[in-house]
């Protein structure tokens, strides 16, 4: 928890982009720009020009983008222009031969830090779809971000340093300017998750379990897991007003049917589901009990919870939460409620033609991965009978069965056509694993042969396991203490 912050809620590109550009324009020392996608369009060029101007003035500009996020959206010429202008540009997790499935993990964060004194945490990327095109009647994408001033800026900056090091060498050792001075009275937490940590997944489940009156969620690519759905259902059955606002039209066609396949369990428990009527709602926010709120990059799906680097801010401040509630109610004015009618999920009174997204925001890999996980979960449940399938999920096992039947027919007819690709992929995996194993073996030998601080050689591999165990225990204790002090009444409720 960081006290003493000032937080400003920013709605859509019309408020976010000018604030970002003003902060960039005021930079005197450093700009750290971490963005999942920067489109090579008018908006991308606008920010590129702003960053180049500051680099020419001597400001240290670092830019980190995601390889998959920029795939087919930004050319090498765009990045080379920035590098030639003095900007330090890095790409996160580009494909490597020794990591065949490494592309699954993405840097999905969207943050900007300026002079260690201003930080922006947001769901927006840089592109014309967020700005819209009024002259052509194209609405901007609906999205949410925040402007942070105060001690918490140091945590956003530290998270950037961790992601920067993951894409290359660590940040250079520079004199630390210390934690920024207090700028307000808002307490908040910066939650910077990494692959396979599931930190925010636990937070989302915790908040669903501890909400007492309201839990209002907005998500762009909802594909909730069974555990999270059960947490939401339990909250609704305990009398909590649970609402979920999702896009009516998505830039990823597969997402809408996958999201709708999960409506029925929510609706049956009394959760209210709304679909946005505009071009696209891309925000990832939550507000609970009028005093807890979350804004950031994490979607309610497994790709965000488990696969990506994400960054969100959790604010525990009633005035800010009330502002978030007002914004949510305003958004519902442009949404249509989904209901159960005659045992079917329906969207009554919805426009016959919804406004489609202005264009694809990109980054479809993570969303497709989340959709694939959801499809895999349903198919596995149909085969193993590990959970009761909803009737609304009927299409998924039908489609899955048809696909497997087609693959089986091809395998019988053309066995080599199936065996060769599988054999080639397995050979790639084998070579990659052998290569990584040899690298690690050499590294271990180097560590053993390198004298420690006392001049002794480290020849025993046993303490490493013990050290890992101790660190893991400390990490769990730290997370538990953080959760207990989250201001959500966990200890009090346990006593009750």
Descriptive notes:
It is a single chain. By secondary structure, this protein is α+β, with helices and mostly antiparallel strands. It folds into three domains: 2-184, Endonuclease Chain A (Endonuclease, Chain A), CATH 3.30.870; 199-396, Endonuclease, Chain A, CATH 3.30.870.10; 415-459, no CATH class. It is built from 17 helices and 16 strands. The protein has a 16-stranded mixed sheet, with helices on both faces. Strand 12 and strand 13 (292-296) form a beta hairpin. Helix 7 (199-210) runs parallel beside helix 8 and helix 14 (395-413) packs across helix 15 (415-449). It starts with a strand and ends with a helix.
């Amino acid at each position: 928890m960081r006290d003493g912050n000032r937080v400003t809620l920013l709605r859509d590109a019309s408020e976010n982009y000018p604030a970002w550009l003003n902060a960039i324009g005021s930079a005197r020392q450093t700009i750290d720009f971490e963005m999942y996608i920067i489109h090579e369009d008018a908006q991308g060029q606008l920010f590129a020009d702003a960053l180049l101007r500051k680099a020419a003035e001597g400001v240290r500009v670092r830019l980190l983008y995601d390889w998959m996020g920029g795939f087919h959206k930004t050319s090498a010429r765009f990045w080379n222009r920035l590098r030639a202008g003095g900007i330090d540009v890095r790409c996160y997790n580009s494909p490597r031969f020794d990591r065949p499935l490494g592309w699954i993990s993405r840097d999905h964060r969207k943050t900007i830090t300026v002079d260690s004194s201003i930080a922006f945490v947001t769901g927006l990327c840089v592109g014309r779809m967020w700005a819209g095109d009024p002259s052509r009647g194209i609405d901007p994408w609906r999205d949410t971000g925040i402007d942070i001033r105060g001690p918490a800026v140091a945590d956003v900056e530290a998270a950037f340093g961790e992601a920067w090091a993951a894409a290359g060498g660590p940040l250079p050792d520079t004199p630390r300017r210390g934690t920024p001075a207090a700028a307000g009275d808002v307490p908040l937490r910066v939650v910077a998750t990494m692959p396979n940590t599931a930190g925010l997944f636990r937070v989302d489940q915790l908040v669903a379990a501890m909400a007492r009156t309201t839990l209002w969620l907005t998500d762009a690519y909802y594909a909730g897991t069974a555990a999270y759905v059960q947490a939401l259902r339990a909250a609704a059955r305990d009398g909590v007003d649970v609402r979920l606002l999702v896009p009516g039209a998505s830039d990823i066609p597969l997402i809408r049917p996958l999201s709708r396949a999960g409506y029925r369990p929510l609706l049956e428990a009394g959760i209210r589901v709304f679909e946005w009527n505009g071009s696209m709602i891309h925000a990832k926010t939550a507000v609970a009990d009028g005093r807890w709120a979350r804004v950031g990059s994490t979607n309610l799906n497994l790709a965000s919870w488990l696969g990506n680097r994400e960054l969100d801010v959790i604010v525990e401040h009633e005035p800010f939460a009330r502002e978030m509630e007002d914004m949510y109610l305003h958004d519902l004015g442009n949404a249509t409620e989904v209901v159960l009618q005659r045992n079917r999920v329906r969207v009554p009174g919805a426009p016959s033609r919804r406004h489609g997204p202005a264009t694809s925001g990109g980054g479809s890999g993570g969303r497709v991965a989340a959709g694939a996980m959801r499809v895999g979960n349903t198919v596995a449940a149909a085969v193993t009978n590990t959970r009761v399938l909803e009737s609304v999920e009927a299409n998924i096992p039908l489609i899955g069965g048809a696909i497997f039947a087609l693959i089986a027919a091809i395998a019988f007819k053309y066995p080599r056509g199936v065996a060769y690709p599988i054999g080639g992929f397995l050979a790639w995996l084998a070579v990659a694993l052998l290569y990584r194993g040899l690298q690690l073996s050499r590294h271990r030998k180097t560590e053993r042969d390198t004298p420690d601080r006392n001049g002794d050689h480290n020849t025993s591999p046993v303490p490493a396991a013990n050290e890992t165990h101790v660190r893991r225990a400390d990490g769990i204790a730290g997370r538990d203490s953080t959760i207990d002090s989250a201001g959500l009444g966990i200890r009090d409720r346990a006593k009750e």
